[in-house]
Amino acid sequence: MLSTARHRCVITALIGLATLWLAAVPTPASAVQTLRLHGSNTIGEALAPGWIAAWMTSRGCTGVTREVLLPGQLLFTGTGDCDFAVDLQTHGSSTGLADLFDGKADLAMASRPVNDREHARGLDTGLGDLRHPTQELVVALDGVAVIVHPDNPLRELRVAQVRQLFSGEVRDWSGVGGRAGAVRVFARDDASGTFDTFRTLVLGERRLRGDAVRLESTHELAEAVANDPLAIGFAGFADIGATRALAISDAGVAMSPEGFRIAVEDYALSRRLFLYRAQETTPLAEDFEAFVTSAEGQAVAERHGFVSQDVRAYADSLRRDAPASYRALVGDAQRLSLNFRFAPGRVDTKAARDVQRLAEFMARPENQGRRLVLLGFADPNEVAPILAQMLSNDRVDAIVDRLSASGIAVSRARGMGGAAPLAADSGEAGRQRNRRVEVWIQPPPAS
């Protein structure tokens, strides 16, 4: 047995070693406030670090540094007037929402909207209504690009053909008009919001083919497709790398994942990027939310290849397949980079915020005297044609009322019924794309 004196020496030494070990382990939660930002790899891989660095700097932090704690987990700290840290974890949209429910995250990053089960869980657990404008925040826009090797001769596909390739119904490129060769499919993992979006917008009831190569990283997926002439995959608009994105058609003309078509959500695989929060959250979380939706935060999103929500006017923005009645209404107008869309029975959370964005745009000196034209649309499959006309009128009137309440005058508002659909009859997601109000701006009347 050890003598008492020797025993004390051993204990003292062990305590000293333990103290040194604890000092070396980062413990931000006990030392400073920590914002816990968990979820989507699409947002978290590059955009969230860009937001975090700019936000921390705006709050007085200098020397902002990032430390890799584990794969997919970063700790951001700063010097100067910096009394907080940021814990960023990027393992997929579903993991971020799970951490929000479990109290392990302050904000959940998601590259797809909450589903019915998650919405119900939020209500049941007291987290709140995750479809309310104060808890569901659209932070940028993106498009899921269908990507191939640069040498692939195909330039466009229909959504139905993409579904056939990824489900395995078609396994040779010649089956969709391409050069003969066995199709090799690359896809994101099940925790990915990008995969959830792709499953909703493309696969529907079909399953991904069993031999698809599944990857957690968007960057790795794009690299794999860029190195394989027979490959096909999908990635966010900002992450196509050295691959080539195909133009995609659903109803009407094929469109490429370009900034304007994503901004107005006409591109068939457009999507929104979200932050979700509990009804009661921290001041740090609220401040970060305000930053990412500010002009500075949206500029960061653009620098990282995503599409901002700033309102802009685009010339030559009419669809090639637009009917004559549509062309007559907007012939001398420019289209604005927003759409008002509708959840069942109401405008959605982005539309509620877009009213304020449009008010700020119209208040700019250069827009004085310019006139707004609003065109409402219904899904052609939801009701009979005569009722579709009435429904599109109701939708455009609802937006006119909201704009009028904010002091925005509308020169002309017209329902277009089920004309110019964006999506074929592909379930609720497609029908919601067709239920919209477009916003156009005309020059001042000639004096």
Automatic annotation (TrEMBL):
The leader peptide range reads 1-31
* Entry keywords, A to Z: Membrane, Signal
Entries under CDD domains matching the protein: OmpA_C-like, PBP2_phosphate_like_1
Any one GO CC term of the record: membrane
Note one Pfam family from the annotation. OmpA
Q: Where is the OmpA-like domain?
A: 327-445
Against PANTHER family, the record matches this protein to: PERIPLASMIC PHOSPHATE BINDING COMPONENT OF PHOSPHATE ABC TRANSPORTER (PTHR30570), PHOSPHATE-BINDING PROTEIN PSTS (PTHR30570:SF1)
What is this protein identified as?
A: Phosphate ABC transporter substrate-binding/OmpA family protein
